[in-house]
Amino acid sequence: MAEPLLSHKIVASFSTFGDFDTISGGTLQTAVTDYTPAGATTADKLLGTTSTDNITLTRAFDPSRDNDLIEWYKSARSGADQSQRSVTKRMLNQIGAVIDSRTYGPCKPVSLDIPGGTSGDNSVANITLVLAVKDLL
Questions:
Q1: Are 55 and 89 in contact (CB under 8 A)?
Q2: Phi, psi of 30 (to 5 degrees)
Q3: Nearest in space to 114 (alpha carbons), one of 129, 127, 125, 131
Q4: Taking residues 6-19, what's their average pLDDT?
């Protein structure tokens, strides 16, 4: 039996745009239909299509690093960039070694939240990217 991950870190990498501190979403859901054949007293479960929830990535905003991400978002939304991008979620152990990974793709941009803020409030400005994902690869 596999040992549970007691102390681990999850890192998400999006294409060439680097690592993100948090990842959420990516839940897989399969439609299920009850089918009762003639004369049966219980229904069979028929599996239908599977969908994947949007993935949300967040990290501290760095204008010099995140400029390429912002430009890609604008290009992809206008239809000029049709490249296939993917997100890889890596599970790391206590010493930082990858113990498992999952890749989602192809990804299309849904929204990009470029941080605002107040001068002198000493809070971390985060950039948040939401991606529509076709499937777990």
A1: no
A2: -110, 130
A3: 127
A4: 78
With beta carbons less than 8 A apart as the criterion, state whether 90 and 5 touch. Answer: no
- Tokens matching residue 127: 């950039």
pTM for the model stands at 0.81
The answer to whether 59 and 129 have CB atoms below 8 angstroms apart is no
Using the predicted structure, report yes or no on whether residue 1 has a pLDDT greater than 60: no
Q: What is the model's pLDDT at position 136?
A: 87
- If residue 36 lies in a helix (H) or strand (E), which one and from where to where? none
Backbone angles phi, psi at 69, to 5 degrees: -65, -45
pLDDT digit string, tens, across residues 104-133: 989 999 999 998 766 777 778 899 999 999
Query: How far is the C-alpha of 46 from the C-alpha of 65, rounded, in Å?
Result: 47
Residue pair 102/86 in contact by the 8 Å Cβ criterion: no
Determine if residue 102 is left, alpha or beta; phi over 0 gives left, psi from -120 to 50 gives alpha, anything else beta.
beta
The encoded tokens of residue 46 equal 């028929």
